[in-house]
Structure formats: structure tokens, C-alpha cells
């Protein structure tokens, strides 16, 4: 949600490829990108009810246990403060967590922070003072939001939005639908490919470097997060074999088999975010990561649902294999097989990423596609 326009298109069109998306779909049928959906009014009202009930229950229990109204008021203040901290840091208070909702900033995929959460909480408190039902009436104002994001008056004042968090089954379905990243066709000898040979790299006819339109670029070990960089690499990969059109060629689908000649790896997230990295390298993934070890690359993962930890996982990529380590994240990490089966990772344990597997960090899924020297 870096900019409003791409986010608002997600209701009827994919924000990544622009294709039409059926109402209620979890992913784009064309590119597989996850569609961010606003929370329903009913879910928002239920979340508010849970938060208010939690504070009321704590207050009543303390008053009954101590027979002191003063201690009850202190307990209510402390419970409210705890909810405020949770909302400010994670976007999910008790009610949001139970209803699988997240509150985020409207201008970028980040937690609302203390100031915005204070504004929303103050609006709810004022609403409670109006016939004791104003807090729920405030949530109903989201139904009149013409932007399609069901933002209540409190959201508009605070600059926030409340979105749904996809369930685990939906995330697995979206991961299975996500296609591999587009990679340049490989020039090969015109020979039919037997189905039994799909796991073996096909013979490649080398194209002289002098016949390429785009010069090869050297990659440096710098933090990678900007999408335009990935687009530039993809353009160079497509432009490279154009001058060799005299050689009979047919496109070959990219297979997950590892290649010792790999020069780079393209990381593709289910949100459409892409980042090319050199080989070998170590990459730290997270919401706002810092290098775990000297020389590590860092990639800030776009995650409006706030399910990715600040420093979530570490990828180690070599010319022959890849490893992943969950760095003690809050929502955990998984390895997803080609059939959609998910295998949770043990925190701080280095695990091999087998061919065809994808890595899930929080609610985000990343696919690693190896590009050979001829592709870049």
C-alpha cells in the first residue's frame, strides 16, 4: 500500500498485472498475486466487541477480587494500555487477532503506530460515551466509505485501514496458483523433448556475446528491495537472445532443477514483489530487516497484513542448492511442496530447500528462480 491507486484497484482488478479479478477471489487468476481485501463491517464490530468485553471482564474480576473500585479502574487502564500497545506495534489487538484482521497505515504496509492507534482509540472511547453504543455506530460509518475500503470515521482521522488476513488454507491455495517468474526463453537445438527428460537440462547452443543487444551487468552485494531493479534484469534477459533469431529455437519452461552455472536468482513474492540476487549470497527477509551477518543482503518484504517479522528468515543460496533458516519469527515459516503441502520450519534450524519448493514467511510466499549466465 505504498500508493493509494494500486491498492484501490485490487477490488476489481489485480494491482500487479491489471487483469480482472472475480469478486471474493483470494488471488488473481492470471498471475496468482494475493488480493488484499478490506475487513467486513460485521467482523470489525465483532473485534470491537471482543476488545471492550476483555477490558470489562478484567475490570469486574479485579473489583470482585479486591472489593475496590479504585483497583478496578487501575486494571481497566492497564488493560486498555496493553491493547493500545498491541495495536500500535502489530496492528492486531485481541479482537483483531480473533477475527483475523489487521490494522495498518493507509499510505504504506506498516503498523499504525502509537499516534494513529491513539486517535482510533480516542474515537472509540468517545463513541462509548454516546448512549454506550457509539463505538459500534462508529464502525458502521465504514459502510458509507465510497473508496471501497470500508474505512470508518476513525480510520479517516487516523489514516488507517483494516484488512482481512487470509486463512492458512487460502494461503496454500494461492501459493499453488502462483506461477513461476517469467524468464527469457532458452535457445536450444530443435529436438522434441521427451516427458521423461523434463528433469534434465536440455543441450544449449551458445550464442556469442557480441550478438546480444544488452550488455551484461555486474551485480554488487547491496540491499535489494526496489522492483524497478528486477524489471531491468528481466528486460536484459529478454533482449539478450533477440539477435540470434536465425537459430531455430523454441521456449523451454523453467524447471526448478539447480544449475551449477547459475549467475543469479530471482526472488518472486506472491504479492508481485521481485528482487534479483547474485549467487552465492545470503539474504535476510523481513518487514524492516538488518543484516544478520556481515555481507548479508536484506530485502524488505511488502506485507500489508503485518504477518512478517522485522527480521523473519535467512536464505543461503549457492550455485547448487539453497537453505532457509527461520530467525525466531512470530508467525513462523514453512516450506511448501509442489502439491501444496506445507512443512513448518523449526526456529534457528538451517533447512534445505528442495527442488520445486517455495518458502512461506508469515503470509507471504517466495519462489526462487535460477537464471543461468545466458539469461542475464
Automatic annotation (TrEMBL):
<protein>
    <submittedName>
        <fullName>FHA domain-containing protein</fullName>
    </submittedName>
</protein>
<feature type="transmembrane region" description="Helical">
    <location>
        <begin position="70"/>
        <end position="98"/>
    </location>
</feature>
<dbReference type="InterPro" id="IPR000253">
    <property type="entry name" value="FHA_dom"/>
</dbReference>
<dbReference type="InterPro" id="IPR008984">
    <property type="entry name" value="SMAD_FHA_dom_sf"/>
</dbReference>
<keyword id="KW-0732">Signal</keyword>
<keyword id="KW-0597">Phosphoprotein</keyword>
<feature type="transmembrane region" description="Helical">
    <location>
        <begin position="45"/>
        <end position="64"/>
    </location>
</feature>
<feature type="transmembrane region" description="Helical">
    <location>
        <begin position="118"/>
        <end position="138"/>
    </location>
</feature>
<feature type="signal peptide">
    <location>
        <begin position="1"/>
        <end position="25"/>
    </location>
</feature>
<feature type="domain" description="FHA">
    <location>
        <begin position="283"/>
        <end position="333"/>
    </location>
</feature>
<keyword id="KW-0472">Membrane</keyword>
<dbReference type="Pfam" id="PF00498">
    <property type="entry name" value="FHA"/>
</dbReference>
<keyword id="KW-0812">Transmembrane</keyword>
<keyword id="KW-1133">Transmembrane helix</keyword>
Amino acid at each position: 500500500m505504498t500508493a493509494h491507486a494500486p491498492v484501490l484497484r485490487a477490488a476489481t482488478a489485480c494491482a500487479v498485472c491489471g487483469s480482472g479479478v472475480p469478486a471474493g477471489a483470494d488471488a488473481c487468476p492470471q498471475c496468482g498475486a494475493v488480493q488484499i481485501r478490506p475487513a467486513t463491517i460485521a467482523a470489525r464490530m465483532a473485534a470491537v466487541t471482543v476488545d471492550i468485553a476483555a477490558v470489562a471482564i478484567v475490570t469486574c474480576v479485579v473489583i470482585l477480587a479486591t472489593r475496590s473500585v479504585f483497583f478496578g479502574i487501575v486494571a481497566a487502564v492497564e488493560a486498555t494500555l496493553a491493547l493500545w500497545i498491541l495495536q500500535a506495534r502489530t496492528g492486531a489487538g485481541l479482537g483483531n487477532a480473533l477475527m483475523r484482521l489487521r490494522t495498518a497505515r493507509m499510505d504504506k504496509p506498516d503498523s499504525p503506530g502509537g499516534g494513529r492507534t491513539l486517535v482510533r482509540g480516542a474515537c472509540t472511547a468517545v463513541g462509548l460515551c454516546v448512549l454506550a453504543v457509539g463505538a459500534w455506530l462508529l464502525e458502521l460509518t465504514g459502510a458509507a466509505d465510497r473508496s471501497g475500503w470500508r474505512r470508518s470515521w476513525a480510520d479517516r482521522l487516523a489514516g488507517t485501514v483494516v484488512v482481512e488476513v487470509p486463512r492458512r488454507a487460502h494461503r496454500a491455495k494461492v501459493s499453488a496458483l502462483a506461477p513461476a517468474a517469467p524468464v527469457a526463453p532458452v535457445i536450444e537445438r530443435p529436438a522434441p523433448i521427451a516427458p521423461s527428460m523434463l528433469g534434465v537440462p536440455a543441450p544449449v547452443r551458445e550464442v556469442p556475446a557480441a550478438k546480444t543487444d544488452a550488455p551484461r551487468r555486474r551485480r554488487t552485494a547491496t540491499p535489494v528491495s526496489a522492483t524497478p531493479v528486477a524489471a531491468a534484469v528481466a528486460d536484459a534477459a529478454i533482449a539478450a537472445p533477440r539477435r540470434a533469431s536465425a537459430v531455430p529455437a523454441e521456449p523451454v519452461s523453467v524447471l526448478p532443477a539447480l544449475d551449477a552455472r547459475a549467475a543469479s536468482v530471482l526472488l518472486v513474492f506472491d504479492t508481485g514483489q521481485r528482487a534479483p540476487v547474485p549467487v552465492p549470497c545470503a539474504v535476510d527477509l523481513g518487514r524492516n530487516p538488518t543484516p544478520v551477518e556481515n555481507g548479508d543482503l536484506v530485502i524488505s518484504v511488502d506485507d500489508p497484513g503485518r504477518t512478517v517479522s522485522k527480521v523473519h528468515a535467512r536464505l543461503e543460496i549457492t550455485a547448487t542448492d539453497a537453505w532457509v533458516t527461520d530467525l525466531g519469527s512470530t508467525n513462523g515459516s514453512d516450506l511448501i511442496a509442489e502439491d501444496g503441502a506445507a512443512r513448518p520450519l523449526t526456529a534457528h534450524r538451517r533447512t534445505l530447500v528442495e527442488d520445486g519448493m517455495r518458502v512461506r514467511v508469515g503470509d507471504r510466499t517466495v519462489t526462487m528462480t535460477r537464471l543461468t549466465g545466458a539469461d542475464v
